[in-house]
Structures are given as structure tokens and as C-alpha cells.
Amino acid sequence: MIKQAQALTSRTQFPNVSYQEASAESLPSLQDSSVDMIVAAQADHWSDYSRLFPEMKRVVRREGTLAFWAYKDHVFVDSPRATDVLNHYAYGENRELLGPYWSRPGCSSVHSKLRGIVPPSDDWKDVQRVQYEPSTKGPRLGSGTIFLSRRIKLGDCMDYIRTWSSFHAWQEAHPAAKGRQQGGTGDVIDKMFDAMRSVEPAWQVDGWEEKEVEMGWGAGLLLARKRSENRATLNGGAHLQKDASGENHPSGPRIRVVDALEDLQNLRLYEQQQEYRDIELIRMLNQHERVLKYRANEEREQDPPNS
CA-CA distance, 128 to 224, in Å (whole number)? Predict the structure, then answer.
């Protein structure tokens, strides 16, 4: 991939462009505070966030930007019944379908349009999420800001689905199954399209592979800006420490209640929208709740009601 990018990049026109291979969690070739913007397209759902965000904090300059973008699997925007069949074959848990062969948690992160990625609020501000969820009631009738749509032949759509990682894993589990294009009796993608054609009369024609359909993808863009100063420092260095029972409690100067409330409300809203339960997110929510309870008790002790 790097060789291809280098071949397509003119050294004369872009003398300051270079390509290097590295893990997002470890970028030793980049100096501290040397990067204006980090971009990850259809990639960051694989990251180890406990290591990623400290490295992003190190290399991104103050007021620098993070931009993570991803899209999930498509729908047929004019064909709700075919879309239902597609989703059954793509996510059904039967071992003969594709659902068990998706890698987790990466697939879940993309499917939730990156809502599970939460930049640490002490280091990042101005967090924005731009999302789109397509509709099966017609083109461009989904909710949000549209990122990606395409008109495509059904035959090309079959080829596209065969690029999915879940299909490659399914093939490894079913080595004897051969697609009809390969002279076999059919694989899971052939059966998927058989089922879709059975519920879409307009697809039941000779030469159906040449029929064009409109496809739309759900997508999410996460943007964040690095703070000029660490917010915990601005709030007096407040942080959480574990006591002997393993519980987190605030220590140091007082935490701003408005900040904790803002974080808690945003995270609770996200958690309610989640299709998949995120254990790390729930842990963070519980931690914020403990902070607020501690702060409320502290205020009550300092400001007892008048008797």
C-alpha cells in the first residue's frame, strides 16, 4: 500500500509528503507536539484506546485536531425487503451465515458509527460527531449528513460483499463451498442474493446481474481538538485514586461539578443510543457518578441547611 501511494505521489509537486508504516499506538518517528491533524479513515475502530489516546496527546500540538471516519455496511435505499434479507445474512448468528465471522469489537464500533470512541475530556475539547443513517424509503431520505452513496449493478454488489472480512473468514470455515462463478453449487453470497431476489419482484428478471440499484452507507465522523492545557490541571489537578476497597475517589483540589455533569450527560446519552453494551463506557459512567456523589456530599457538609 505504501509503495502504491509513493508511486502515485509526485515528489516534484509534493516534496514534503512522506509515507511511513507504524502502529497508531506507537509513533516513534514523530516528535512531541509536532502534528497539526491526525486522520484515520475506516481504521481507528481497531485501535487500543488505552494506548492510542496517550500517543495522540503526545504528538498532536495544542489546538490540533483528531478526525476519525468510518462507514458501516450498506442498505438498498429503495428495497427494504432486500435490506432485511441482507441484514439477516450479514449479522445472523447461525454459523452458516456471516454474523459469527465478524471481528469484534471493531465491527461493533463501526456499526455504532464510532460512538464508542470517547476522547478523554481532560485532553480534548470541541468534540463533534457528524453521522448519517440511511433510509430504505428512498435515496437521500436518511437522517444526518450523507457521506457515501452509489448506484451499482447487482453483480458488482455481489463482488463487493465478497470483499468483506466476514466472508473471507466464512470461506475458511467452509472450504468446500464454492460460488457459482467458480463452477460450484453456491456459497453464502449466492444464497443471500437468491433470498433477496425472492422478495424483490423487480430483481426477478433475466440478466438480473446488470440491474442497477441505489445503495447507501451509514457513516460517522468524530472530530476533537486538543486542549491548550490539561483540564484536570486547570481544575486544580483533581484526579481519581483507588482506595483499599478498589473504589475510585476524588483526591486533590475540588472538581468542577459542571464539567463532571457535562461528561456524565454526554456519556449517558451515548450509552442509551448504543446497540451493543460497552463495558468500558459503563465503567466510565459509574466513575463519573461516584465523582458527582462525592462532590454533592462535600457541598452538603460545607454548606449545611439553616435550622
Answer: 6
Distance (Å, rounded) from C-alpha 140 to C-alpha 149?
8
Which residue, among 57, 50, 201, 72, has the nearest Cα to 134 in the 3D structure?
72
Per-position b or e across 42-78, b if 16+ CB within 10 A of its CB: eebbebebeebbebbbebbeeebbbebbbbbbbbbbb
Predicted TM-score (pTM) above 0.70: yes
Q: Is the peptide bond before 253 cis (omega within 30 degrees of 0)?
A: no
Segments in 73-153 forming alpha helices (H): 80-91, 106-111
225: nearest Cα among 33, 62, 47, 69: 62
In terms of phi and psi (left: phi > 0; alpha: psi -120 to 50; beta: otherwise), the region of 33 is: left
Would you give the DSSP letter of residue 66?
E
Strand, coil or helix: 226: strand
Cα of first residue to Cα of last residue in the chain, in angstroms, is 73
Can you say how many angstroms the Cα of residue 125 is from the centroid of all Cα atoms in its chain? 19
pLDDT of 53-102, one tens digit each? 999 999 999 999 999 999 999 999 999 999 999 999 999 999 999 999 99
CA dihedral 81, 84, 86, 88 (to 10 degrees): -140
CA atoms of 217 and 72, how far apart (whole Å) = 6
| Rama region for 190: left / alpha / beta (φ>0; ψ in -120 to 50; rest) | alpha
